[in-house]
Specification:
Strand order of the largest sheet: 6-10-3-11-12-4-13
Helix content: 40-55%
Number of strands: 17
Mean pLDDT: 90
Low-confidence stretches: 1-8
Largest sheet: 7 strands, mixed
Shape: elongated
Distance between the termini: 64 Å
Structural class: alpha/beta
Radius of gyration: 27 Å
Length: 567
């Protein structure tokens, strides 16, 4: 009887291990690996993913175990067919998620036509089809117990490799982002809308940051908008400004500090120090300004060093509003790498969906109205009568909006459209928003006594096609327009050779009453300028370029041979 009982459960151990391996890869390894490598794209911390991942892992294991029992009751042949199918799925998932990731679109909001012909679709079909053939061949040639043992040991070994890899990644990322604890993001401040539209009747410094808005396209659209040009009294348009970096994460701290990040410290530490000791932020603090920093959380300021310094930045606790929302977010994260090509579109909604199922409360449990960088929200707000309020206190307002950034979704009237939106129409929406904002400042009587910088953090490769890789060297030409306190007259243009390492000092000088050109004080002559190129989320390798030409002359840039890597 004992022998018969043992034989009746023959093969189930392999089935259970295989089920656990299949469950581990998409439910635990995949979402955590994606998160650790892209953690600044998500609001979550590692602990927030724990419960959804465990629940999904156990659910898959339970379903797999029940199915294995049913197949074994049917017969050994049925169970081995199930083992072959499971092995094919395991192999296919592993290859798809670990070896076929070179052609994936970025997570920065770039619109992807998932229905278009793509070699990645063929690769996905080939991988899962090939995995099934391999599994069938193994089941036929190994037969019986040898096939069962092969499945058992292969599944266990693969799971062990992935577990060790994930553990190593935790250690590596935990060391790299020392100021950004992976287990808890509640130690960081989050921007609210407090004071966003409150300005001083005495003196203001206003920085309106329009993300990814390129000077070339902005200038073309501005030339066709006489109404906005008429509104921009006192402004100087700098047509040859050059950013130091191609993406927001390093561009913003350089704008605040004027310093260069060369991988000598963590990005988060560099950002934190850049903001806290920024020349214009420090001066505003010393002179009693009300300081508001409104951004899309790219700054990620540690509460331990910044709490209480800005009127709108508060410590918050984020969590999933429901377990269901957490599980769906996790599955969408998994789809990004591990799903076949035709299912990946569900994964690329993960960041946006996670925001919908996020519940945020202040440290003491209260709710607050948190800032959102939506161009449309800002535009509609400034159009309303009475939105702009005044105070006798001097004010610094640093406001970052989505600008012309992907996804392309606006027409020139800042209406969200489903078809026909382009980089140009997004840029037109920026002009419309700027026009409404300046009118609101003038109506409130705070325009003349304000130093205003309307700028972008970096330029953009607007010529790139849908299936082409953007050229980061074409992102060095940001839009920059500045008006000093009391400056008047028609909109002027300047071809001064501005580097973004000079902007922090210029903003500080504007607070002293200097005009736009005078604020740069000797930094406007033709000179060699520097640009540190890196791929998106690839700050670990910075390649130095210099140019004596214009910022929009990509061919004038030359590599110096200096490369700064993460230490």
């Amino acid at each position: 009887m004992k022998h018969a009982k043992k034989r009746s459960f023959d093969g189930l151990a392999a089935a259970f291990v295989l089920t656990a391996a299949i469950a581990f890869m998409p439910c635990i390894y995949a979402p955590y690996e994606l998160f650790l490598n892209n953690q600044f794209e998500f609001w979550m911390a590692t602990g927030d993913l724990l419960l959804p991942s465990v629940v999904l892992f156990l659910a898959v294991c339970a379903v797999g175990a029940a199915g294995s029992f049913v197949l074994r009751l049917i017969g050994r042949g049925a169970l081995r067919i199930g083992l072959a199918a499971g092995l094919a799925l395991l192999i296919g998932l592993y290859i798809q998620g670990n070896l076929l990731v070179g052609g994936l679109p970025p997570l920065d909001g770039t619109v992807v036509d998932w229905r278009a012909a793509s070699p990645e679709r063929i690769k996905s079909l080939a991988v899962f089809g090939g995995a099934m053939i391999v599994a069938v061949v193994l089941s036929v040639f190994l037969r019986g117990k040898r096939f069962v043992k092969t499945v058992l040991y292969a599944s266990g070994a693969l799971t062990l490799v992935l577990a060790v890899t994930l553990g190593t990644l935790f250690v590596t990322m935990g060391s790299r982002y020392k100021n950004n604890p992976l287990a808890d993001k509640s130690g960081f401040l989050k921007p609210t809308t407090e004071g966003e539209f409150t300005y001083s009747t005495d003196r203001n410094l206003i920085v309106l940051m329009l993300d990814a808005t390129d000077e070339t396209i902005f200038a073309q659209e501005l030339a066709n908008d006489p109404e906005l040009r008429a509104e921009m009294t006192g402004f100087t348009q700098f047509t040859d400004a050059m950013s130091g970096y191609p993406y927001t994460e390093l561009s913003l701290p350089q704008i605040f500090s004027g310093n260069w990040f060369e991988n000598g410290e963590s990005e988060r530490s560099f950002t934190s120090q850049s903001v806290k000791y920024s020349p214009f932020v420090k001066k505003a603090r010393e002179q009693g300004y009300r300081i508001g920093l409104y951004d899309d959380e790219a700054l990620q300021l540690p509460a331990a060093y910044h709490e209480g310094l800005y009127e709108n930045q508060i410590r918050v606790k984020n969590r999933f509003s429901s377990l269901k929302g957490g599980c769906i977010t996790l599955l969408r994260m998994t789809c990004i790498k591990y799903a076949p090509w035709d299912l990946k579109s569900h994964g690329y909604t993960a960041v946006r969906y996670s925001q919908k199922v996020k519940s945020s409360t202040t440290a003491d449990g209260r709710t607050a109205e948190f800032f959102d960088w939506s161009l449309a929200d800002f535009y509609h707000a400034v159009q309303k009568d009475g939105t702009v309020q005044t105070t006798g206190d001097k004010c610094l307002r640093f406001i970052q909006l989505e600008g012309a950034h992907v996804p392309y979704q606006y027409n020139k009237d800042v209406e969200v459209i489903t078809t026909g939106a382009t980089y140009q129409t997004n840029t037109q929406a920026c002009l419309t928003t700027v026009k409404a904002y300046l009118k609101a400042l003038k109506a409130a009587g705070v325009y003349e006594n304000s130093a205003i910088a309307i700028m972008s953090d970096h330029g953009y490769d607007y010529s790139v096609g849908k299936d082409e890789k953007p050229d980061v060297l074409k992102r060095a030409h940001p839009m920059l327009m500045i008006k000093g306190i009391g400056e008047s007259g028609e909109l002027k243009t300047s071809d001064a050779a501005i580097s973004y390492e000079d902007v922090a000092g210029a903003l500080s000088a504007l607070m002293d009453g200097k005009g736009a050109l005078a604020a740069f004080d000797g930094h406007t002559a033709a000179r060699e300028r520097r640009f540190l190129a890196h791929e998106w989320t690839g700050q670990g390798v910075l390649t130095e370029y210099v140019t004596t030409g214009r910022a929009d002359d990509r061919d004038a840039m030359r590599a110096t041979g200096r490369v700064f890597t993460q230490k």
